[in-house]
Amino acid sequence: MQIINNALKEGRTTLTEYESKQVLASYDLPVTREKLVSSLEDLLKAAEQIGYPLVIKGSSAEIAHKTETGLIRVDVRNDEESTLAFREISAAMNGAGDGAVLVQQMVKGQRELVVGLTRDAQFGPCVMFGLGGIFTEILKDTVFRVAPLEKQDALEMMQEIRANKILEEIRGMAAVDKDILAEMLMAVGRIGIENDRIEEIDINPVIISGGKPVAVDALIVLQQS
């Protein structure tokens, strides 16, 4: 895949969020609508195309945790707010990467999941699924399967997390579309099998919006050799 090859040629071991989601989208995973911009003019064009409210983030392969470094603004509601966010984030990046800023739709939902992949020395690519957002590290409610996955494998993974009730209809929220979620898990397994230079995939959070899962943030880690 050209995105991966280009990153390796540049000596990088991580893809940017934008690049990572381009890889995911090429396997038909649902990702946020977004545009990479490097000027205020392009920012405002992207805002018009995507529509407010927006999330605006710094984009650099050198920075994995954007929240901790002040490189993310959420619920940006107009041109004035987006201009301010662009200027603040550009200044905070301080020359990291190419200084590009990611403008993306704001996906609203109260439930957050995590989907990922790790390449085990013995078993090869293994797909991960569980609770996402801040709860991934706190609760560690995740399960794994060796790729490739069949649909039944994916459905079983959903039932094996302790908080599996979160996938059902609850408090007025629609049940999660398990067919789409299963396709995501199977696709991540295929990505790992078909791209042996991918060491790790972290899609966190996957936000459930109107019952549909959407990949809101993603990171792909590569093997250099």
Q: Descriptors for this entry?
A:
D-amino Acid Aminotransferase, Chain A, domain 1; Dna Ligase, domain 1; 2 domains; six-stranded antiparallel beta sheet; four-stranded antiparallel beta sheet; 7 helices; 10 strands; 28% strand
Question: Would you write up a description of this structure?
Answer:
The protein has 2 domains: 125 residues, D-amino Acid Aminotransferase, Chain A, domain 1, CATH 3.30.470; 73 residues, Dna Ligase, domain 1 (2-Layer Sandwich), CATH 3.30.1490.20. A hairpin with a 2-residue loop joins strand 8 and strand 9. It is of the alpha+beta class. The chain has 7 helices and 10 strands. The chain is globular and about 50 Å long. Strands 5, 6, 7, 8, 9 and 10 form a 6-stranded antiparallel sheet that branches. Helix 3 packs across helix 4 and helix 6 packs across helix 7. The protein starts with a helix and ends with a strand.
Overall pLDDT confidence: 94
Structural class: alpha+beta
Name of the CATH first level of the largest domain: Alpha Beta
Number of domains: 2
Gist of the model:
The protein is of the alpha+beta class and 225 residues long. The protein has helices spanning 2-9, 17-26, 40-50, 79-93, 135-139, 151-160, 178-194; strands at residues 34-37, 54-58, 72-76, 101-105, 111-120, 124-131, 142-146, 198-209, 212-215, 218-222.
Secondary-structure blueprint of this entry?
Elements: H1 2-9, H2 17-26, E1 34-37, H3 40-50, E2 54-58, E3 72-76, H4 79-93, E4 101-105, E5 111-120, E6 124-131, H5 135-139, E7 142-146, H6 151-160, H7 178-194, E8 198-209, E9 212-215, E10 218-222
Antiparallel strand pairs: 1-4, 2-3, 2-4, 5-6, 5-8, 6-7, 8-9, 8-10
